[in-house]
## 1
Amino acid sequence: MMIVVTGLAAPVWAQNAPEPRTLPNGKTWTYDADAGRDIMRTCAACHGEFGEGGGGGVYPRLSGLHPEYIAEQLRAFKSRTRENIPMIPYANERELPEKDVLDVAYYLASITPPRHPPADDVAMDAFERLKLAKQAVQIPRQPGDVEAGKALFNADCMECHGRDGQGRVKKPPLAQQHMPYLHTQVGLFLSGAREHDDVDELMRPKSARNWEDLWAYVSTLDD
Ligand code: HEC
Ligand code: HEC
C-alpha cells in the first residue's frame, strides 16, 4: 500500500505499491516514498510542496498524475526530446538518475489533490487543515459556452483524456490542471515544439471561440 497523504482515495494506479524493477545500472529499484519526498524538495520551488503547481499556474500540477506519465516526461526532459529550459539544471542524469525519476514519480502519483480546501465547519487539526489547503487544486471557471465546449471535448478529447478529463494511463488529465499551463502546451503542440497525436485534425482546425468554449468546459470538470 502506498502512502496516501490526503484523506481522499488515491487514484486506482496509486493504490498498489509498484513492482520492483531493474535499473539501467543493473541494480534493483524498489519504491522509496521518503526518497520521493526528499527529491520533491528541489521541485517544490516551482511545482509546490505537494506538487500542486505554482507560479500562477505556469508550473503544472504533478500530484495525482499517472506515475508512468510523470516518469516518461522526466525522461523526455533529460533527453531533451521535450524541451524544458527551466528544468535543465534538475532534469539530467546526475541530478535525477532513473531511480530518482521513479521514486519522485510514484511519490507524486500517490498524492490526490483535493478539489477544494477543507470547509471551515469540518473538524480537523490545524496542521491537517493547512496541508489539505495547500494540496487543493481548484481551477477557476473560465468564460465561454460550457455546453459547446462539452460537445467538442466529448468528440475530440474524451477518448484519450477520459470522460471526466481525469486522464488515463500515460495520458495526462486536463481536469484540475492549471489553465495557463494548458494554454502553453496547446501553443507548443500547434508550433510543433511538443508532440501530440493528430494535431492537424484535433487542434489546428479549432477557432479561438472553440478553444474558449473547450476550456470553459474543462474548467468545470473539477467543480
Ligand atoms: C525552475 C522551475 C522548475 C523546477 C525546479 C522544476 N520544474 Fe518541472 N516544470 C517546470 C516548467 C516550467 C514546466 C512546464 C514546461 C512546459 O511548458 O512544457 C515543468 C513541467 C514538469 C512536468 C511535466 C508535467 C506534465 O503535465 O506534462 C513534470 C513531470 C515535472 N515538471 C516534474 C518536475 C520534477 C519531478 C522536478 C524536481 C526534480 C521539477 N519538475 C522541477 C519548471 C520547474
Ligand atoms: C489519441 C489520444 C489523444 C487525443 C484524442 C487527445 N489527446 Fe491530448 N494528449 C494525449 C497524450 C498521449 C498526451 C501526452 C503527450 C506526451 O506524452 O507528451 C496528451 C497531452 C495533452 C496536453 C498536455 C497535458 C500536460 O499535462 O502536459 C494537452 C493540453 C492536451 N493533450 C489537450 C488535448 C485536447 C484539448 C484534446 C481534444 C481537442 C486532446 N488533447 C485529445 C493524447 C490525446
Note: Strands lie at 21-22, 28-29.
## 2
Amino acid sequence: MKAFWTLHSNLPREGPGDAAMLDRALRAARVAETAQILDAGAGPGADIAALLTHVPRGHVTAIEQHADFARAAAARFAGNPQVTVKTGDMADPGGAYDLIWCAGALYFLGVEAGLRAWRTALRPGGQVIFSDAIWLTAARPDEAVRNWQEYPAMTDRAGVARAIAAAGYTLLDDWVLPDAAWEAYYTPLEARVEMLPPQAETDPALAATLAEARSEIALWRRHRRVFGYGLFRVRLQ
Ligand SMILES: C[S@@+](CC[C@H](N)C(=O)[O-])C[C@H]1O[C@@H](n2cnc3c(N)ncnc32)[C@H](O)[C@@H]1O
C-alpha cells in the first residue's frame, strides 16, 4: 500500500475523465443552479471544480473511502462553503441529492447494486451520471482481458444498459470518453512513474508498482479501441 501512495499521492485525478466530458453530461442533465450534487468516490476531488460551475448557488458533497484522498480533496476546497468532503462509504451517502456524479468508482459497488443503493439518496426526478469501463469491440485480445481480470463483471454498452434497467433507472444518454480523458489521468501518472525509479532501486514493492503502472498505460495505448470508459446519464424511473 505504501508503494501505491508513493505513486498516487497528489496526482490531480485517479481515473480517466475531464472537464469537457463532465460539462457535456451536466449540460444534458440541466441541473438547477441550486442543485445538491454528490461526487461519489471522489478520489482527490478532480471533478469538484467543474461540478461547481454548473451549480453556482448549489452544493457539492464529495464522499471518498480513503482518508488520504479525502484530505487532498478537502485541502483543495478549504473554506469553500459550497463544498463538503466526507470520508465514508458511497453505498450509504445520505442525501437527498439532485444529481449523483460518479467517475470511475461505481464498479466497486457493481453498477446494478450501486444504482439500487442510490435510489433513496436521490430526490424525485434525480439523476446519476457515472462512468464505467466497458468493452468496445467483440474481439478482445488476451492481454486486454487479463488486464481487466480485477473487474470480472466488466461488460459492454448493452450490458451496462441492462444493469441500469434492472436497478430501476432509465438510460437517457451515453458517451464513450475520448482519449483526452484518459490522457488527463495517464499523463501526470506517467510523469510520476518516470520520476520515481531512483527511489525504486532500494524499494522492490515500488519497483513492481511502477512496472505495473507502465504496463497498464502501454496496454491502453495498444488497445484503446478495444476497451474504454462509457459515461452514462440515467434517471430514476
Ligand atoms: C478510480 S478512482 C476515481 C476517483 C475520482 N472519481 C477521479 O475520477 O479521479 C475510484 C475511487 O473510488 C473510491 N471508492 C471505492 N469504493 C468506495 C466506497 N465504497 N465509498 C467511497 N469511495 C470509494 C476509491 O477509494 C477511489 O478513490
Note: The radius of gyration is 18 Å.
